[in-house]
Design brief:
Largest sheet: 3 strands, antiparallel
Number of strands: 3
Shape: elongated
Number of domains: 2
Strand content: 5-15%
CATH topology of the largest domain: Ribonuclease iii, N-terminal Endonuclease Domain, Chain A
Distance between the termini: 60 Å
Order of helices and strands: HHHHHHHHHHEEEH
């Protein structure tokens, strides 16, 4: 068992003063169900702590990184960075799954690649780092993880914000909700390209194209938002 812990330390490039903290972080409850004499608890308490530490460190990081970004945008960006699927991908990138202590049944059912298990293990690992090495070490670990994906996450959050912002403005000034209408589909089934319009009060305000309706709608929302904001500004109305 300690051989696995040592291998995990080497792969993660971390050295724990208290090795049992890392062992607990890697222990899923299914392992204890099949090994009741195991002396340590599972990783659920560490996962609880790591979740709180992750929210704080990510919020602090974004607050200082984007000093002019509104609170709502910071919240959306943080949510994108710490969502379950994202944390599971971080765990996969670290090869965390291969070091987990799982019950035989859970392992046979693909537990080492299950999103929920990987997400919890990542948060438990962070909780263990925080307890063993303190806030600064936890902060350095999180920063190194989120920095490489920040730009793509920011782009995705911005696209989402465009649709939300467009809805807010349309409802505030026109008392209607924008709709998205597919106006064109081109190409073969495996590479179909969609064109979508953003419509407000029966008027098309923007158009976008993409290889999925969702992507096309996001682009249409961005274009519509710019057009609507220009229109309101010309009319002397605030948005």
């Amino acid at each position: 068992m300690m051989t696995i812990v040592a291998a995990a330390e080497q792969a993660l490039q971390l050295t724990f003063s208290n090795k049992t903290l890392l062992q607990r972080a890697l222990t899923h409850r299914s392992y204890l169900n099949e090994n009741p004499s195991h002396p340590l608890e599972d990783n659920e308490r560490l996962e609880f702590l790591g979740d709180a530490v992750l929210d704080f460190i990510t919020g602090e990081y974004l607050y200082h990184r984007f000093p002019e970004m509104p609170e709502g945008h910071l919240t959306n960006l943080r949510s994108s960075l710490v969502r379950t699927e994202r944390l599971a991908q971080f765990a996969l990138d670290l090869d965390l799954g291969q070091y987990l202590f799982l019950g035989r049944g859970e392992e046979e059912n693909g537990g080492r690649e299950r999103v929920a298990i990987l997400c919890d293990a990542f948060e438990a690992l962070l909780g263990a780092i925080y307890l063993d090495q303190g806030t600064e070490a936890a902060r350095n670990f999180v920063h190194a993880i989120i920095e490489p994906v920040l730009q793509s996450t920011l782009s995705a959050a911005t696209e989402k914000d465009a649709k939300s912002r467009l809805q807010e403005i349309a409802q505030s000034h026109y008392q209607v909700t924008p709709t998205y209408r597919t106006v064109k589909e081109e190409g073969p089934d495996h590479a179909k390209e969609f064109t979508v319009e953003a419509v407000i009060a029966e008027r098309s305000y923007g158009q976008g194209t993409g290889f999925s309706k969702q992507t096309a709608a996001q682009m249409a929302a961005q274009q519509a938002l710019q057009a609507l904001e220009r229109e309101l500004a010309q009319a002397g109305k605030s948005y």
